[in-house]
Amino acid sequence: MSLLIVADDLSGAADCAIGFANAGRRTVVALGADEAVQAAHDAAAGRAAVIALDTDSRRLAPGDAARRAAHAWQVLGGTQGASTRVSTRRLYKKIDSTLRGNWVAEVAALQPSAGLAIVAPAFPATGRTVRAGGVYVRGVPLDETETWQLEHAGQPADLPSMLEAAGLRSVRLAVDRLRGMQPDTLAQAIAEHIRSGAQALIVDTENEADLNLLARATLALQDAFFWVGSGGLARELAALPALFDTGAPAPVSPMRREGPILTLVGSLSAVSGAQCALLRERTGMAELTVPPSVLRDQALHPDSAAWQARIGAPLAAGADLLVRIGRDDAFDPAEGAQLSTALAALVKPHVGHIAGLIVTGGETARAMLGAAGIGSLELLSEIEPGVAVAQPSDDTRRLTIVTKAGAFGSEHALYGAWLHLRGMQEAARPGSQAGSQPESQRASQADRAHERTPL
């Protein structure tokens, strides 16, 4: 049995699927339908266990996003019909842990063919929990956070009202009741909700133990259902060998290449800003902030060629570089994809110089990989929760890639990613930041950043 993860952006697909790679399962993130079909063939042949498809639907109209999600399951799901248990592939609908995007429309489109939606978006490792049907971010109600106010000010942020607005009959399982059950009794309770006609089950979960109990219980279900969650529930499922009926395929060995590391930051969140500041402080690398005005009219703007040259010069010289999208009074969150695509076009001529790419923001990651001609990624490891390491599935491309959602990660996330990629280098380029530090000093910095052992 294999697993299909349907996500609405690239960094989300990676941070949801990385738990399976950590558990030793061959895991592929596909940026399009053709790449997903090839990954499905690999799964059928035993060369992959998990396919994470980025439908790139976060910024679409809800109806368009719903159709993409439903089509992905129709093409890649194996078995259709809510009356029949899916036997060849299970479905995990990855949603943003802060409820961004068209997740409700996508879940509503999947439910008729996939069965009961078991909704548990908590990601305790990143401070996201669910209590009384509401999402909390480090103890703060979601609708009071910067993330929600930036794009959804004035809109409800609780799970029951959002699902019911989409026409789904939902019920809620309170955390106190959840913790009073064994996996088999919880499975029976969920089955009863299915028989009663519920279409969505909202599960309050506040820690990994809650998610683990839910994961174990759902594996015993004989009725049709699918998971709806973030990377939190996915990690608990990844730790359960019973999810798969075959042994783990042999892991992929990382490729290595010397060269500079490019960090692209498309997110404007305060979290990303703090991460950039620490990266600059610890490495001394140069930073370029591209004005949105240049990116809005990139093909015709008189300064485009100059910005392309400014980006290329340090990379051609072998120096690491941080590039960010700026913000101005005309900024609109809805233009994120446009700005990211324009930034990727400025960077595209210089991709051949880099050995490592760190990208913050799903739209920025997808735009950059598209510009580089990379259609799918093989996940390798994780630096910290939500920060995934990958390489192109085409093993002739010697490029190591780190992806991270914009508002995710500790203050050390980008610096930890840089240390990880530098640790993967066979030898640092003369004059680069890594080469200018003694090995003992770099090891000490890695310890401070809580970095895992490099591949």
UniProtKB/TrEMBL annotation:
Keywords noted in UniProt: ATP-binding, Carbohydrate metabolism, Kinase, Nucleotide-binding, Transferase
Transmembrane segments: none
Ranges of compositional bias, category Polar residues: 433-444
Keyword Magnesium on entry: no
Chain segments carrying region Disordered: 426-455
UniProt feature, compositional bias: Basic and acidic residues: 445-455
Enzymatic class: transferase
GO molecular function, one term: kinase activity
EC number: 2.7.1.219
Domain Four-carbon acid sugar kinase nucleotide binding: 262-414
Cited Gene3D superfamilies: Four-carbon acid sugar kinase, nucleotide binding domain, Putative sugar-binding, N-terminal domain
All copies of domain Four-carbon acid sugar kinase N-terminal, residue ranges: 3-237
Keyword Zinc: no
Top-level lineage group: Bacteria
InterPro entries: 4-carb_acid_sugar_kinase_N (IPR010737), 4-carb_acid_sugar_kinase_N_sf (IPR037051), NBD_C (IPR031475), NBD_C_sf (IPR042213)
Family note: Belongs to the four-carbon acid sugar kinase family.
Protein name according to UniProt: D-threonate kinase
Organism, scientific name: Paraburkholderia humisilvae
